[in-house]
Amino acid sequence: MITSFYISGMTCMGCQKTVTEKINEISGIHTVSVDLESGKAVIDADRMLSSEEISEQIGSKYTVQQEASTVEGKKPLSKIKQLTPLLLIFTYLLAGTFFLIHKFQLSNDNGMTLFMGLFFIVFSFFKFLDFKGFPDSFRRYDPLAKKVPLYAKVYPFIETLLGIAFLLEWQLRIALLATVVVLSITTVGVLRSLLQKAQIECACLGTALKLPMTEATLIENGIMLVMSFYLLLS
């Protein structure tokens, strides 16, 4: 049975060797392949392994996360089922936004800033649910987070601040420019992952909800970028 994991915390060939040797010590292991650059470990064993078991074996220095849909012979869920949490959240955000627009007779521009504010607040909330695990997941595809680990740690706070700025309509131009920069960087990473067909989890809703990286993530970022550019130009 083949299972894949992403292991964060390896910084050199010595780490790669240590991780490989420790995993090989687990009973029932046939082969282990660990890639230092991507952090991906492909394990062939006579039983299904869990991320908790691998983590306990290699030590707390490393963070282990199972790759989405990697258990050989297991039928993967459809994209719709996998993305149900994301679709539900978008539905509630849109419904809430339209209700408030109608209730308070808001303009289209005010409605957009309201939606963007709710978007950032809600999405940052889910990232805070597993604040410790989010940075490692985010660094797997965000270009800036890969080079600057601190950026991955403060990203949920950035989203929260942007959400507050949009809801209060405070320093909107700065908030819009920051949104364009932040989401453009993330979109590059998402697009690269999709083109490489990397089976990784999307950190858009943190790591508490196991969402695969799909075109939906690209569309989600694209919608926010389009609204940001529109509001900047208007």
Structure notes:
- Helix 4 runs antiparallel to helix 5 and helix 5 runs antiparallel to helix 8.
- A hairpin with a 5-residue loop joins strand 2 and strand 3.
- The chain is elongated, with a radius of gyration of 20 Å.
- The termini are far apart.
- The longest helix has 24 residues.
- The protein is of the alpha+beta class and 234 residues long.
- It has a four-stranded antiparallel sheet with strand order 2-3-1-4, covered by helices on one side. Strands 5-6 form a two-stranded antiparallel sheet.
- It has two domains: 65 residues, 2-Layer Sandwich (Alpha-Beta Plaits); 155 residues, no CATH class.
- The protein is built from ten helices and six strands.
Short précis:
The chain is α+β, with helices and mostly antiparallel strands and 234 residues long. It is built from 10 helices and 6 strands.
Q: What's the number of helices?
A: 10
Q: What percent of residues adopt helix (DSSP H or I)?
A: 55-70%
Question: What form results from the Cα inertia axes?
Answer: elongated
The secondary-structure element order is EHEEHEHHHHHHHEEH
Largest beta-sheet details? 4 strands, antiparallel
Q: State the separation between the terminal residues, measured CA to CA.
A: 56 Å
Strand content: 5-15%
**Low-pLDDT residue intervals, each spanning 5 or more residues:** none
Q: What is the topology, as strand order, of the major beta sheet?
A: 2-3-1-4
| Whole-number total of structural domains | 2
- Give the averaged pLDDT, no decimals: 87
Structural class assignment: alpha+beta
Alpha-carbon Rg, integer: 20 Å
Strand segment count: 6
